Amino acid sequence: MNIKSEVSCLVGGMQGEGIESVGEILAKALGRNGYYLFGYRNFSSRIKGGHSDFHLRIGKDPVYNASERFELILAFDHESIELHQRSLIDGGVILFDPKTVKIDQITIRGGIQSIAFPFSDMAAELGSKQMKNMVAVGAACALFDQPIGVFGDAVREQFAKKGEAIVEKNMAAVKKGHEFLQELMDTRFPLEKQPQSGQRLFLSGNDAISIGAVLGGCRFMAGYPITPASDILENLVQMLPNYGGVAVQTEDELAAIAMVIGAGYAGTRAMTATAGPGISLMQEAIGLAGATETPIVIVDTQRGGPSSGMATKIEQSDLHAMITGTHGEAPRIVLAPSTVEEAMLDMPKAFNLAEKYQCPVFVASDLVLSTSKQTCEMANLQLEDIQIDRGKRVAETELAMSGDRVYKRFAITDDGITARSIPGQKKGMHHVTGIEHGPTGHPSENPANRVAQMSKRARKLQCVPMNDAIKYEGIPQAEVLLIGFGSTYGAIREARLWMQKEGAAVGHVHVRMLHPLPAAEISQYTEKAKTIIVVEQNSTGQLANLLKQHISIHAKLHPCLKFDGVPISPSEITSFCRELI
Amino acid sequence: MATLHDYRMDITPNWCPGCGDFSVLAAIQKAAVNLNIEPENFVLQSGIGCSGRISGYLNVYGMHTMHGRSLAVAQGVKLANRDLTVVCAGGDGDGFGIGGNHFVHAARRNIDITYIVMDNQIYGLTKGQMSPTSPKGFLTKSSPEGNPESPISPLQLALSANASFIAQGFSGDIKHITSLIEQGIRHKGFAFINIFSPCVTFNKVFTYDFFKQNIVNLDDDPQYDSTDRTMAFDKVEQTDGFVKGLIYRKERMDFVDALPGRSGKENLSNQDLQLSADQVQNLLQRYM
Questions:
Q1: Which residues, including other chains, have CB under 8 Å from residue B195's CB and lie 6 or more apart?
Q2: Average confidence (pLDDT) over B34-59
Q3: Total count of domains within chain A
């Protein structure tokens, strides 16, 4: 039998049927068997009903994106087959539930096996139809030739709260699915055995962002429910009280960011998390944070826009809103994580930058990064290295010696950064306002002061360190250069590896800080490249335009754009490249 | 011990001579001194408009924020550090028009801040347009044929939003508003104080004389019970809102105490942010 270094499966059914729990348990168990996982959830803006599916990629080596091809489809509805059978490998298997799938109504393509597997009936026999998901887990486990033992632990953890009887029943369902598959067929997709590894996490970008926030000293979060950012609010409502903090749900996004500005001003590390329409509503406040030099962190889990757009679909189209959004010109920093590990570590970094440069810091996530789950190696995180840097704060002793009645919070300095005083600090009183102001924060329309204050705020960003502002992978002197940001990292990486295998000299710059743009760092690679392909999930090429604004690469730059709401695949990138080169 | 001098800022307000906001500024400063609050522990947020400029006219931690959002900013400050005295001030357009949503929610949240609205029934800084408290038929630059809309009743709105302290005063009686502000600051919960603060330039109807002649003083009504919400609602109805004094007050748990795990804890702004190895382990546990 052909041993595989990776396999993928798709579980599909009606939304609300617990499709994701199949993936959860498979992922948990396989993760403990040492495999790397990537789980992508395709869902709609509704609670129950409508098709939804979960893609799970299981690899011996790290995986950063969903696979384009599956070995197995577990189908609880027609769409799972109709939409995805073309993605099955030749020799792939569909296990469908005859209770909900009328197979004679579907044309099955050649070269694959579709087999009725009575998930619902078997579950019903064991006491509850809901357990059909666990029967499916057992079947997948057998098909991938995995020992069943480790699944027991995963099931136990999933259902422990519901009592021993429920745990036992669900374990029986897994066992039954496992046995039935073994009797049913000989086909297997055995995975190469993986030695036990170091400690790992399996979590979504939103989970990582939430953890990263707490690690980074965030003690206040205000948010308004919005897809796909709500998990962050829900996570932090639970997590923060354990670390002396609090998360509150506000009446709207306007209140959320305004509260964050208040808390940031009062000396707490504070953040909000939102998407699309929320970012639009927050624009005015971004200007206030910029003008008052208040540290705040904003997570934007980008989704399809404009307006309500496509709330449950990927897009990377808020670059302009993050980089230049708000009226007038206000400083800000925009970080762009591309893996769950980076999502976690960018949060402490964002809080440090916000306090150091006293400005809003965006963390530009996107729907795929925020909602997909990935394996994360603890050893790579080096959480013990996280440092908290509170930036320039004026000391009590300095204030005590000062002859000023009002603290010069906005005194002009060489690097543009003035030490903050925090409410409660004696003799630190001052005024902050969105109106142009002098050193004490009181309104001023004096032309010279205006220029001095605008320049001061702009100057701060010139000092932002550029280390880790990009990551580069591939051949050092690449002729073909792929550039992207955010969750497309996995697809670009896989496309690069395929093209390299074919002998192409390909490199990959992934931009990790979108503003201020690390133009010099990117230029090192663009200068040598003959063809530059900017991969992004929007319709106007926002990153491509940004690069053109800073680097003279117009003639050799080709935007590879996708804005249909579906994550870009490696083969879409390679076909785009092949047409060009 | 803080003195009035400590609270003074050597900046001349840009308000018109005779503006009602001068009295509100003086009353806030006097109330803070009477309550012996040190200026460094006093944070004043303000919105946008003539009255919004108030945050720059006293020497505290002053925050001039966004049009309509000062209450939200104020709540963030209070949540971060509950030891601070947080007072928020602005106009009727700021608080009931563009910021109306935050007013309702701050009230029901019962966060421990004092919200002072300088209500002049007009937009002054933009030179005389109708506001959410302008009466029906009111003639302004944006309603030359008379205001086609009915005004909101700030007091009844606050009552229905479950505000735990509601008072109203008039700029012409500085002693009275000082007392209301003191009571509002002492009240543990959301305190709303609406102050009729005449615009001498753009509002020729609701003048000092108008209020002197028409406002009903609750102190003159020995039967009035400010703990009775129904009575409060009726009183506002009967007086068409032209009433001054403590309208309603009820002790109710403040927001910070109501938050899970927050009561009696160290302020957010005062914490050691570096986590121990055990804390990190606990944070990650559910994802292992």
A1: B20, B24, B116, B117, B118, B119, B168, B169, B170, B171, B177
A2: 98
A3: 4
**Which of A203, A217, A254 lies at the smallest CB-CB distance from B69?**
A254
Pair type for strands A296-302 and A360-366: parallel
Residue of B nearest to A203 (CA): B287
Are residues B40 and A425, on separate chains, in Cβ contact within 8 Å?
yes
Nearest CB neighbour to A268, from listed B72, B269, B282: B269
**A235, part of any domain:** yes
CATH superfamily of B4-287: Thiamin diphosphate (ThDP)-binding fold, Pyr/PP domains (3.40.50.970)
A271 & A347 share domain: yes
Contacting residues of A for B105, CB less than 8 Å apart: 250-251, 255
- Tell me the domain boundaries of chain B: 4-287
Whether A372 has a pLDDT exceeding 70, the answer reads yes
The predicted-structure confidence for A322-363, as pLDDT tens digits, reads as follows: 999 999 999 999 999 999 999 999 999 999 999 999 999 999
For A191-211, write each residue's pLDDT tens digit: 998 776 788 999 999 999 999
Q: Over the stretch A423-468, which tens digit does the pLDDT of each residue have?
A: 999 999 999 999 999 999 999 999 999 999 999 999 999 999 999 9
pLDDT tens by residue, A501-552:
999 999 999 999 999 999 999 999 999 999 999 999 999 999 999 999 999 9
Q: How far apart are the first and last CA of chain B?
A: 55
Smallest Cβ–Cβ distance between A211 and the set B63, B104, B283 belongs to: B283
Residues A31 and A63 in one domain: yes
Q: Which of A128, A151, A184 is the last residue of a domain?
A: A184
Mutate to test the interface with B, among A209, A429, A437 (most CBs of B within 10 A): A429
pLDDT value of position A151: 84
How far is B102 from A15, CA to CA, in rounded Å? Answer: 35
Q: Is residue A189 part of a domain?
A: no
Q: pLDDT tens, A47-71?
A: 777 899 999 999 999 999 999 999 9
CB distance A243–B39 less than 8 Å? no
Report the candidate in B109, B113, B244, B82 with the shortest Cα–Cα distance to residue B184: B113
Please report whether residue A12 resides in a domain. yes
- For residue A63, what is the domain's CATH number? 3.40.920.10
Q: What is the mean pLDDT of residues B186-213?
A: 97
| B105:A435 CB<8 A | no
Q: What angle do CA B65, B66, B71 make, to 5 degrees?
A: 70
Whether residue A16 is found in the same domain as residue A139: yes
The 3-class secondary structure across A495-531, one letter per residue, is HHHHHHHCCCCEEEEEECEEECCCHHHHHHHHCCCCE
Q: Report the gap between the CA of B46 and the closest CA in chain A (Å).
A: 9
Q: Which of residues 222-261 of B touch A (CB under 8 A)?
A: 259-261
Q: CA-CA distance, A499 to A574, in Å (whole number)? A: 7
User: Domain limits at A376?
Assistant: 202-385
CB of B288 within 8 Å of a chain A CB? The answer is yes
| ∠ Cα A491 A494 A496 (to 5°) | 110
Q: Do A243 and B279 touch (CB under 8 A)?
A: yes
Establish whether this prediction's ipTM goes over 0.90: yes
pLDDT digits (tens, 9 = 90+) for A265-300: 999 999 999 999 999 999 999 999 999 999 999 999
* Contacts A433 to B, Cβ<8 Å: 55-56, 63-64
Residue A54: phi and psi, rounded to 5, are -125, 125
What is residue A1's predicted lDDT score, i.e. its pLDDT? 64
Token reading at A349: 């970094």
Stated as kind and residue range, the H or E segment containing A361 is strand A360-366
- Kindly report the number of other CB atoms within 10 A of residue A555's CB atom: 6
What share of chain A has pLDDT > 70, as a percent?
100
Residues of B in contact with A423 (CB under 8 A): 40-41, 43, 61, 77, 81, 84
Angstroms from B175 CA to nearest CA on chain A: 27
Domain match, A514 and A406 both: no
- What's the whole-number average pLDDT of chain A? 95
Measured between CB atoms, does B162 come within 8 Å of chain A? no
**A194 domain residue, yes or no:** no
